[in-house]
Design brief:
This protein has nine helices and eight strands. The chain is α/β, with parallel strands linked by helices. Helix 1 links the parallel strand 1 and strand 2. The two termini are about 15 Å apart.
Amino acid sequence: MTDTHAHLDFLEPEELKEAQAHLPELRAVLTLGVDPARWERTLALAQGNVYAAVGLHPTSAHLLSPEVEEALRHYARHPRVRAIGETGLDYYWTPETGPAQYRALDFQAALAEALGLPLVLHVRSRDGKAEEDLSEWLLQNRPKKAVLHAFSGHPALERAGLETGAYFSFAGPLTYKKNEALREAAKRLPKDRLLVETDTPFLPPEPHRGRRNRPHYVRHTLAKLAEVLGMGLKEAEALTDQNAQVCFGW
């Protein structure tokens, strides 16, 4: 199993100890450092089967400066880094920083392109506007390799992701009873573009809702994806492991 999106640096010491004890169960984990204060810690955690991504989350886009750009260029060249991000658009928490979010997104997209790394994309809003805007950005900019993190099933984002060859990464919400439309979307998507993740410590899958997430909980999302696709668990595991390896190059 592969957890393609976690934030190990957000875990408390005892939580991290537990997560690390279960790492042998996983093929790989990608842990993401999402602002300058977290990049060093993220890279320190990227050992063994844990790899790193570094970027500026849209809610931290206001921090972008020439100094931060130079620091991100430096950290992005670390040998354990396998992606840039997460970046994107977030109108749920910080709608007022829209222009800054686009600047940070464009910078990180250019950096990912220059380094030949995947671009991990976050999107969230209350009314779907960020999803529509990111869909337009995808179609205009067409990054060579992009990952739609915690894919929500938004129709415009699905169309743009398909047209641009993006990867669709499913997190805990795939397992939630009310999300039948999301499971229907998973059925429609190309199998070689499917990934699973936890977003540790956020978005825990059933049966762990209401608690803090862990990378090894990805097995529940994987099991639901296997059910949706009419596959056995081992077949779905081999599929998503292979997709992650192709995407992130570990």
